[in-house]
Design goal:
Elements: H1 3-20, H2 28-68
Length: 76
């Protein structure tokens, strides 16, 4: 796949994003505000998942291992 196809594909994806999110009908400053808010929310979700999902997985593992009678030798 050459650079032209990748560029066309990325521009097509961006166009689809604009159509689906209705950004195509917004003014440029509204588009930038919308994209900034959307990017901020996405970054917060990714950060929260990165920080808290491992903790919840560990707690769930400990809970279910106690129920099933499995005792891990891994210390916390």
């Amino acid at each position: 796949m050459d650079f032209r196809h990748v560029k066309n594909y990325l521009s097509w994806l961006y166009y689809q994003y604009q159509i689906i999110s209705c950004c195509a009908v917004l003014e440029p400053w509204e588009q930038s505000m919308f994209n900034t808010i959307l990017l901020t929310i996405f970054a917060m979700v990714v950060y929260t998942a990165y920080v808290f999902i491992p903790i919840h997985v560990r707690l769930a593992w400990e809970f279910f291992s106690k129920i099933c009678g499995y005792h891990s030798t891994i210390s916390s």
